[in-house]
Design brief:
- A hairpin with a 5-residue loop joins strand 5 (217-220) and strand 6 (226-230).
- The chain has two domains: 3-68 and 427-464; 75-188 and 271-413, no CATH class.
- It is rod-shaped and about 150 Å long.
- The chain has helices at 3-29, 71-101, 109-125, 130-189, 197-214, 268-303, 360-367, 386-426, 430-464; strands at 39-45, 49-51, 54-56, 60-67, 217-220, 226-230, 233-237, 240-241, 245-247, 253-255, 307-310, 315-318, 373-377, 380-384.
- The strands form six sheets. A four-stranded antiparallel sheet has the order 5-6-7-8, covered by helices on one side. Strands 1-4 form a two-stranded antiparallel ribbon. A two-stranded antiparallel ribbon has the order 2-3.
- The protein contains nine helices and 14 strands.
- It is α+β, with helices and mostly antiparallel strands.
């Protein structure tokens, strides 16, 4: 044991405390940096020197610089965050669908149907009134155009949703490539028991973003690289990426090159968008199609059996279809029949040339307002009135929106709580770091004073040698 060994211990102590102050300063500087994990200098006693009388310590050394990160908290946060992102995406899109129907409203389908049945009722009260026939034709055209508009708006929502899916898939593939590149950099940087803290922080930020897009699970390997699985299939492993492909089918699907079957169980915003275009939009469209098909069938069946009267004296002729039966019986295609060019084509009288004052057809069509008919959508066939069927559709959308909104609120709170727990471990507290700076500063000053003591000891030895 020599004075030099004491000086070496002091020097090592100064170096260790200086490094600790530098790390604390870096923490403070990155207190607001997104994804930054608080770093710590791990100090340990240096290997002691053995003497016959015992062992003597040789100072302190830096065991490593670690980041404060809890893998389990990361998993909990990503699980909550991707669920929150998916719920918010679903809630926003379902709200758009609800806005299409815009009920109650003077311009919605309920009002259009009421005016349609009311116009037939007015015609039944005055079957020879040309203005009343014109109102019937106009009301029928309004019903058809309202269904056309609703279908067009649903198609537009679906198109925007599909564009969002494409964007999500492209973003996920880009992020996956970046994560794979970081895997390579981290493996290289951590050779020789080093830690690539900043690179790992960058990767964790990307893993958070990827989880929000598609959900999935992270598996970390012993060499520092990670693998990422989406719906049970490998998206990333080390530097290998299996990019996803968006297939703009009906319904849309997402596939990977190693397996042609569609991915089932995608989370995040992409999973929510897939559900919207696979289930929600088709269901609403099928309900509108059910109304359109029912109107075409029921109204035409009654109207085509009636009689129109034209001329003076009036001459009776068999009435044609009210709605066009040559196009698909859908909300997109429903329209008035080509023969419905004016009021004279509207039939009020029944079959058999009963005379222009007869109101059998108008009365029967007016009665459809309260008549239960068979209407079919993607869930099956229901016997109900047109208005009740549409009101049930509106109620279904409203319930879905409410449930999605409640789910989004709950999931957002869960994600916020998970992030708070994660930040309690990895976040930077400037107050704590300032305290750490002061502690290490005092330790540094003590080691520096020890150098002065050693200097005085060496001076004494020199003087003794004279």
């Amino acid at each position: 044991m020599t004075i030099g060994s004491i000086l070496n211990s002091a020097r090592q102590g100064m170096r260790a405390q200086q490094t600790a102050v530098q790390i604390a300063s870096n923490n403070i500087a990155n207190a607001e940096t997104v994804g930054y994990s608080r770093q710590r200098v791990d100090l340990r006693a240096a290997l002691p020197t053995r003497f016959s009388f015992g062992t003597v310590g040789t100072g302190v050394e830096i065991a490593g610089i670690t980041r404060s990160r809890d893998t389990l908290l990361d998993m909990a946060y990503r699980s909550s965050s991707q669920a929150s992102t998916g719920a918010s995406t679903r809630s926003a899109t379902l709200t758009q669908i609800q806005n299409v129907f815009n009920e109650p409203s003077d311009t919605g389908l309920s009002a259009a149907l009421d005016k349609f049945w009311g116009a037939w009722s007015d015609l039944a009260n005055d079957p020879t009134n040309t203005a009343a026939k014109s109102m019937v034709r106009q009301a029928g055209n309004t019903v058809a155009s309202t269904l056309n508009r609703f279908a067009s708006q649903l198609d537009q929502i679906d198109q925007f949703n599909r564009e969002g899916m494409n964007a999500d898939v492209n973003s996920a593939n880009t992020i996956a490539r970046s994560i794979a590149d970081l895997n390579t950099q981290i493996i290289s940087a951590e050779t020789g028991n080093q830690t690539a803290n900043d690179l790992r922080d960058q990767r964790d930020v990307l893993l958070d973003k990827l989880s929000d897009l598609v959900g999935g699970q992270v598996v970390e390997h012993a060499d520092g690289a990670v693998a990422y699985y989406v719906a049970g299939r490998m998206l990333i492993d080390h530097d290998d990426v299996k990019p996803m492909t968006m297939n703009d089918n009906y319904p849309p699907t997402v596939t990977m090159p190693q397996n042609a079957s569609p991915l089932d169980g995608i989370g995040g915003s992409l999973g929510a968008r897939l559900a919207i275009s696979t289930t929600d939009v088709p269901l609403m469209m099928s309900k509108l199609d059910g109304i359109a098909a029912g109107l075409i069938q029921q109204v035409n069946a009654i109207h085509s059996g009636g009689t129109t009267y034209n001329g003076n004296p009036p001459v009776g002729a068999a009435a044609g279809n009210f709605f066009d039966a040559t196009t698909p019986a859908t909300a997109r295609a429903i329209r008035l029949d080509a023969t419905m060019t004016g009021a004279s084509a509207v039939a009020a009288a029944g079959p058999g040339n009963p005379g222009p004052g007869n109101n059998a057809v108008a009365a029967a069509l007016s009665a459809l307002r309260a008549t239960a008919v068979s209407l079919t959508d993607s869930t099956g066939t229901t016997t109900t009135t047109f208005n009740d069927f549409f009101n049930e559709t509106v109620g279904t959308v409203a319930t879905s929106v409410r449930d999605a909104s409640d789910d989004a609120t709950v999931q957002e709170a869960l994600a916020s709580n998970a992030e708070s727990r994660r930040q309690s471990v990895s976040g930077v507290s400037t107050d704590e770091e300032l305290i750490s700076v002061i502690e290490h500063q005092h330790a540094y000053q003590a080691a520096a004073r020890l150098v002065n003591v050693v200097d005085e000891m060496m001076a004494t030895l020199v003087n003794l040698g004279r």
